[in-house]
Amino acid sequence: MERPVLDPEVRECVSLFSRLRASLPSLDTPEDTFLIEWAIFKRRAASVAAECIARLLPRAVEAVYYVELSDSHVGRDVDLLVVLRDSIKGVDPVEVEETIESLLTRLTRMANISFHAYTTSPSLFEVHTTLCGIYGSRAVPSHVIQLFNNSKPEG
Question: The pTM is what?
Answer without folding.
Answer: 0.85
